[in-house]
Design goal:
Helix content: over 70%
CATH class: Mainly Alpha
Largest sheet: none
Strand content: under 5%
Shape: elongated
Radius of gyration: 15 Å
CATH superfamily: 23S rRNA-intervening sequence
Order of helices and strands: HHHH
């Protein structure tokens, strides 16, 4: 049986983003395993986890969890920028991953607006 949050397109995209974050960070230097690698993975996973947890709360509380998910998305952008500057990723990887994060952030904003309507 599928839970309500599993039906959300933004949740599905967040899960996909987490998969991509794991793939992207596999090539990071071993000394980053407890640094940027861990941070990127936790930030992207947090987007989906907060949607799941918030979905069983009141609308007001769910909006708060959506805000937390958005914060994790913005954190992911900062980590991505640092990864680019450290040359752990290419410009193309940066643009692609950043575009996906931006898309999810827009979807999260839309979801929050729909809950307040």
């Amino acid at each position: 049986m599928e839970s309500n949050f599993e039906k959300l397109n933004v949740y599905k995209k967040a899960i996909d983003l987490s998969d991509e974050a794991y793939s992207l960070t596999k090539s990071f230097p071993k000394e980053e395993i407890f640094g940027l690698t861990s941070q990127m993975r936790r930030a992207t996973v947090s987007i989906a986890l907060n949607l799941a947890e918030g979905s069983v709360r009141t609308k007001k509380e769910f909006c708060r969890y959506i805000d937390i998910s958005r914060g994790s998305g913005f954190e992911s952008i900062a980590i991505l920028e640092i990864s680019l500057r450290q040359k752990y990723i290419t410009d193309e990887q940066y643009k692609d991953f950043r575009g996906k994060i931006t898309g999810i952030l827009k979807m999260l904003s839309g979801l929050k607006k729909s809950l307040k309507a």
